[in-house]
Design brief:
Helices cover 78% and strands 0% of the residues. The chain has helices at residues 7-62, 69-149, 156-169, 174-186, 201-209, 213-219, 223-231. The longest helix is centred in the middle third of the chain and has 81 residues, at 69-149.
């Protein structure tokens, strides 16, 4: 017979998964910031090269077509700008490929994080649910007895409960549940202190941006495919099925 897993072990697995996601997501954000900065620099270089080229031509025309010291300086500056532009483009391309890898890695870690989060949340909440169900059962039994004493049909209890559930579904009961958890935690319930809270929205973000497992499997063997995904030539389908 399989022994139940200790809640502290579940919590430890959750903590490991959370740290792994945070580590990879941090690298992803740093890489994204690097690409954004490099893209801005590229745009500035393109603008600078275009402006210098225009200035060179205007200076040459004003000098009656004769190369002067001024046009020479402008020509050198334009050449440097173009060289820098040629250097930065492949760096950006390579950085985008790395970003794609990090996005997929973060999405993979995010799926594991969310699974471990849900496992811990259930382990923490289920004992509380069991206690509440027992309390509810006693009151439902009393309600059912009152219905029978009032000569109502036995189905009237089902109708009453259905109406209660209907009213609950039109309201957001999460806030009340969280308040109850915090109150119970304040009463020195060590287990409820392990409740992991909400799943961070960053997980959904990287999962939406990530290539699908099928796309990534192909991209790892076909460089052109990976390049298209990294540069937006082919849309990433997201971490499908999760």
């Amino acid at each position: 017979m399989t022994q139940p897993v200790d809640i502290k072990e579940i919590s430890a697995r959750y903590t490991d998964a959370r740290k792994k996601f945070e580590e990879v997501y941090g690298k992803y954000c740093e890489q994204e910031k690097f690409i954004n900065n490099m893209t801005l620099t590229r745009q500035e270089l393109e603008k600078e090269a275009g402006s210098l080229s225009k200035n060179w031509l205007e200076s040459l025309v004003s000098a009656a077509g004769i190369q002067t010291e001024e046009t020479g300086k402008i020509s050198v500056m334009a050449g440097i700008a173009k060289e820098n532009l040629e250097r930065i483009i492949p760096v950006i391309d390579e950085a985008r490929l790395k970003l794609l890898d990090l996005c997929y890695e973060a999405a993979t870690a995010g799926v594991d994080y969310r699974a471990k989060h849900n496992e811990l949340a259930k382990a923490v909440i289920n004992p509380l649910r069991t206690e509440l169900i027992k309390e509810i059962q006693n009151k439902v039994e009393l309600l059912h007895g009152l219905n029978l004493l009032s000569s109502f049909s036995a189905y009237e209890t089902d109708n009453d409960l259905s109406e209660v559930i209907k009213n609950i579904e039109t309201d957001n009961s999460k806030a009340a549940a969280l308040e109850y958890i915090h109150k119970t935690t304040d009463d020195n319930n060590d287990t409820l202190e392990l409740y992991p809270g909400s799943v961070p929205s960053e997980i959904a973000i990287v999962m939406q941006r990530s290539p699908s497992p099928a796309q990534m499997a192909v991209a790892r063997n076909i460089p052109q495919k990976k390049k298209a995904l990294a540069e937006g030539g082919e849309k990433c389908k997201g971490f499908e099925g999760y």
